[in-house]
């Protein structure tokens, strides 16, 4: 049987006589609100609110997951989106109302669970309460007649209960011997551990957010980056992180390998990296998907990969840009068909114009009807389909632009004009009208690396384990009180033993109670046989039920 | 056997298990149908008494469960139904074993395999419950009918050929995470059915419905409530562990333990709803029907998470493999 929270409303102070002072009225009001907040039914409502509040976070695009999807939503729903945005519906999990729900829940939790914990601590030190007057009222109760006198019968019960790890107290009341026993106080401790560990989990997560940061960057084979916000393509950091707090390390990508099964399912991605303080060689190590580098609270993950086609550009005046490349972002993971742009803003002294190549890359290309497609994610026959532009790229216009594509505004305005296009395999070139040649010389792989620092992570794990341990204790343990009273039966010198058990927690107590009474009967019988004047026969040693 | 033969065997076993479960549904129907006969017979006699235990049978048959003792025909059909269910479960296990051997990996790498495994856990959970308390065999029809429907839907809409796992899914934490998620889901499935029946049965008991009706053969409301609660108590720590294991794995695969990806969000929602159910079960004013509704909402969230989040929304968990 489970018990509800104590009836708190009933304990509210009676309305004070006459006109109470404003202060007292306020105090009474606050007390009432506090009791309402810490009632179990409020907890249920708050749990529901929490579940409900999380729903829009999964149905609407979230900034924390994909800024691009949010922008897309703004384009698709130009009138609705700003309204939703004002309600924080694109940042649900960082919104004030989501925080309000879980903070209320945790306040309620503390207000509910701490008093119980104190009560529990007191219960640990006080002996089990006296037996109820009528044992037969208990959910599980039985009467066992025995030829033993009352005190001996209770001895048997006490022994049997102690073996079952009950704390036992004997009392004498109204001339009757009785016994109270209790076990399973750990269940309550489990409840406390679970609820407080939830709180600890929240604190650890929040701490990790405040003092943590992460940055992402694409690194081509042979390239390297150092841990500073200026270097990252994108980064986010907690409110309490200063740029100077960042661990001074640099990471270099030596080699990246993607392996595939026969059916082109990606089998593994591994990156050979070096890791060490700036200005030093760095320690070589290998990381991969599911296998990050973990050093002192810092982590380096591989979160993606792709290809960077390499070009050699020779200008009409003979000057060459050797081996220039830019990462092309995969648009289709299964074939690694990718798109990207290579920008050459500075073509040398005196050159007004800028040059750019934008296009499509196929690691294993096939041209059908003049259209290049990719049929395999491995670079077996790399090809590019590129369009060359000349003019003004708008890089210094002050507006941020993606490094992976050209600014379409410049093209629309006619400041950037198409000057040629071609499908190229490795080694092939195209010549632009002004005599510039562009040669596709090969590819390098790049890896998307993420550097994270989350000082809360270990504590999150510890709290999560505590949640689980507390939960198991709370759900699997049973709290039981057992009572017994032996009433002498004057007729035969024996007694009638009343036994009752009260269970709190899950499960059906009846089978366990049946087992207890069976054992008691056997023990009583064995004790009675011992005491009976023996006819000279040796007492049977195996009669003790304890050996079972 | 070659991988192709094993994969074909797996598909054959899938059909066999659907067939066996369907026969079990028929047998469970027969069990319920015959169960009503003695009641009707007594009504003809005109006793008008409430449903009483049927004809006296050998003692000990259902002594501990407190459920009305069934007449022999009923028990015979019940035994046949249980046997068919058990055979179906063996074939059903074979589906996954053959898949696993064919692909040389744990056989829950895509939605088809995941959902098939969840249904197997539900069947096994029912078998365990029904073997421990024979009175619960009367739940058979109500568990097995959704099982058959689910399997047919899985076969029609989720089926994918056997194949290897993508790199991101090759992690031992993933094995732990998915295995426990399947266990939790399967147990919640049975729990949800118990709560749905509880809702039906408790209304019937409150209104004193037709004693010859189908609902009269369903275990009483208190038993159903207990089954629903016990299964959630069993499933909730497993689900909690599955979510934690998922977070541990996400840390190494995606660079953060928790990112509110849609799948994670719905796993969290389900967890909160089941926590609410456990609270509701011990809170005055929420016990009984309101708590049962919470459990039903929990199951709805689990199913939504499986279907909607895998198939409609885009997230990192897009291993569904259904196009
Ligand atoms: C983060 C939110 C919470 C979660 C996930 C949670 C979860 C749980 C779970 C799973 C149980 C086990 C129920 C059982 O023994 O069957 C439980 C018990 C309990 N919870 Fe919470 N809880 C939360 C918040 C609260 C709050 C806010 C309160 C107080 C208002 C509270 C008070 C209790 C009490 C008193 C019990 C013991 C019930 C009993 O033993 O009868 N919990 N909780």
Automatic annotation (TrEMBL), chain A:
Keyword Disulfide bond: no
Gene Ontology BP annotations: cytochrome complex assembly
UniProt keywords, alphabetically: Cytochrome c-type biogenesis, Membrane, Transmembrane, Transmembrane helix
Protein name: Cytochrome c biogenesis protein
InterPro entries: Cyt_c_bgen_Ccs1/CcsB/ResB, ResB-like_domain
Membrane topology listed for this record: Multi-pass membrane protein
Localization per Swiss-Prot or TrEMBL: Membrane
Start and end residues of each ResB-like domain: 40-508
Main location: membrane
Residues passing through the membrane, by range: 42-60, 97-118, 192-211, 458-477
Residues covered by region (Disordered): 526-548
GO annotation, cellular component aspect: membrane
Lineage: Bacteria, Bacillati, Actinomycetota, Actinomycetes, Geodermatophilales
TrEMBL record, chain B:
Keyword Transmembrane among UniProt keywords: yes
One Gene Ontology term, aspect cellular component: plasma membrane
Entry membrane topology: Multi-pass membrane protein
GO molecular function per UniProt: heme binding
Database matches in Pfam families: Cytochrom_C_asm
Chief location bin: membrane
Transmembrane feature ranges: 12-34, 80-102, 114-132, 139-160, 172-200, 232-250, 265-280, 292-311
Signal peptide: none
Annotated Cytochrome c assembly protein domain residues: 108-317
Subcellular location: Membrane
Keywords associated with the record: Cytochrome c-type biogenesis, Membrane, Transmembrane, Transmembrane helix
KW Membrane (keyword) present: yes
GO biological process, alphabetically ordered: cytochrome complex assembly
Protein name: Cytochrome c-type biogenesis protein CcsB
Organism field: Geodermatophilus tzadiensis
Lineage start: Bacteria, Bacillati, Actinomycetota, Actinomycetes, Geodermatophilales
